[in-house]
Amino acid sequence: MNRLNQHAPAICLADLPATDGREALRLEYQWLNAGMTGAPIAIFLHEGLGSIAMWKDWPQKLCEQLGFRGLVYSRPGYGGSTPRAAQVKWPVDFMHRQAHEILPALLDVLGVDSAERARMWVIGHSDGGSIALLYAAAFPDALEGVIAIAPHVFVEDVSVKAIAEATALYTQGDLRTRLSRHHADVDSAFYGWNDIWLNPAFRHWDITDCLSSIRRPLLAVQGYDDEYGTMAQIDAIATHVPHARLAKLPACGHSPHRQCPAMLDAAILAFVARS
User: Fold this and answer.
1) Sign of the CA dihedral 153, 154, 155, 156?
2) What is the pLDDT of residues 28-62, one digit of tens each?
3) What is the maximum alpha-carbon separation in the chain?
4) How many Å apart are CA 77 and CA 49, to the nearest integer?
5) Which of 22, 82, 85, 163 gives 20 to 30 Å between its CA and that of 249?
6) Are 126 and 163 in contact (CB under 8 A)?
7) What's the pLDDT at 20?
């Protein structure tokens, strides 16, 4: 049975060949509305502890409202994709590598051609939002638009504090049990994310300088009650990308697609319609 629900499209596996800079990888992925072959594609990039399963049915519901196909996948180290070896630590530029190498390689393997990419919307949450921004900056013509939900563009103290608190929840609380439902190797998922964000070298990570390369429509979304970041994140995006639109959601935390989906969907639908 599919991990989302028994009626959901099948989860498949894509093999990414090895390159000089990395080993071969196997990624789990899922097409939504696959029969709508002429429709634009929305690529969904999950959060730092996310996976296909953790999105639940929000990507499907959004694609139905937009009239889009959808592509959801688990990054290396997450879900049913190739796990991170226990001794491997993600490098400081791990999100750049996901945007510049892994996502383009997956699109190549799946046969998404240049014409389809030009009509593609990249939708990311949290770390996935940062990866979406980095992809849009690196490949400014290989997408139609980008939607970054609770993205990180630099490291804030509030983010580090919340991630440090997650360590205690994982080792002493029930977070490990809850996450294990969504990841084949739960320690791979958690410590890959936790270790790099708490690495002192990562405190200097900042992608604001590259954002000015983004030419396509950009919507940045942030909740006022986000425990992992402040409005300074999307305000910085607006400073570097003057054409960006901001959606600031009241009474909403770090996961708008779970906590306030109606507000988030309305903001996205209006933005895509304008664009």
Assistant:
1) negative
2) 999 999 999 999 999 999 999 999 999 999 999 99
3) 49
4) 10
5) 163
6) no
7) 87
Q: How far is CA 178 from the centre of its chain?
A: 20
Domains of the chain, earliest start first: 12-268 (3.40.50.1820)
Q: What is the DSSP string of the chain?
A: --SS-TTSPPPEEEEEPPBTTB--EEEEEEEESTT-TTS-EEEEE--TT--HHHHTTHHHHHHHHHT-EEEEEPPTTSTTSPPPPTT----TTHHHHIIIIIHHHHHHHTT--HHHHHT-EEEEETHHHHHHHHHHHHSTTS-SEEEEES--SB--HHHHHHHHHHHHHHHHSSHHHHHTTT-SSHHHHHHHHHHHHT-GGGGG-B-GGGGGG--S-EEEEEETT-SS--THHHHHHHHH-TT-EEEEETT--S-HHHHSHHHHHHHHHHHHHH-
pLDDT tens for 189-238 read 999 999 999 999 999 999 999 999 999 999 999 999 999 999 999 999 99
pTM over 0.90: yes
pLDDT digits (tens, 9 = 90+) for 241-253: 999 999 999 999 9
Residue 187 pLDDT more than 60? yes
Distances in Å between the Cα of 35 and the Cα atoms of 90, 119, 134, 233 are 37, 17, 29, 37
State the average pLDDT over residues 164-174.
96
* Residue keyed to tokens 């909740």: 223
Residue 125 exposed, middle or buried by CB count within 10 Å (0-12, 13-18, 19+): buried
